[in-house]
Amino acid sequence: MKRFILFITAAAISLSAAAQPAPADPGCKMPGRPGPKNMEQLESAKIGFFTTQMGLTPEEASKFWPVYNEYHKAICDARKATRDNFKAIKELASKENYSEAEMKRLMIRYTEECTKDDELERLYLDEFLRILPVDKVARMYIAEEEFRAKMIEMWKKPGQDRHDRKP
User: Fold this and answer.
1) pTM of the model
2) Residue 163, pLDDT score
């Protein structure tokens, strides 16, 4: 009987989370990653996983998901800017003669973007703590890492072991 109630509760929470509006940018799109249809499936799996791991009530989920989607988009944008700045540094460094002033400008911009990422993390921590109890916010961070690890495992080539990778 306990299992049945637990199953019904998990299903209800998952359905309420799935009913939340989809994010405008469902994820950090990177080359070689899933396309739009797969991103929707990935987001649905993520919503279900997070909702279950965090133990969100329907009311909490309705407050959490819009803030989380905003947070995720802001973090993705900041990390993309950081990657773009790093690429610019790498391209300039590959040239034989480059301007030290230009390199310094790029490095300053790169470190500013890295700082922006940290500032966003801190800002949104405060937002999450306003809408959820601290234990559920902690479980959100744990769920993010566990979900990320599961996705990495899923995307690995069959037979490839973590220790088999070449540096």
Assistant:
1) 0.68
2) 54
Cβ burial, residue 127 (10 Å; 0-12/13-18/19+):
middle
Q: Which two tokens stand for residue 59?
A: 């009311």
d(CA 121, CA 152): 22
Cα torsion 16, 18, 19, 25: sign? positive
CA 85 from chain center: how many Å?
Answer: 20
The yes-or-no verdict on residue 5 having pLDDT over 50 is no
Residue type, 50: F
- CA–CA gap between residue 63 and residue 59 (Å, rounded): 7
Q: E strands, 70-152, where?
A: none
- The two tokens of residue 97 are 């003669």
Joined tokens for residue 105: 């400008």
Contact 42, 28 (CB under 8 A): no
DSSP 164: G
User: What pLDDT does residue 145 have?
Assistant: 95
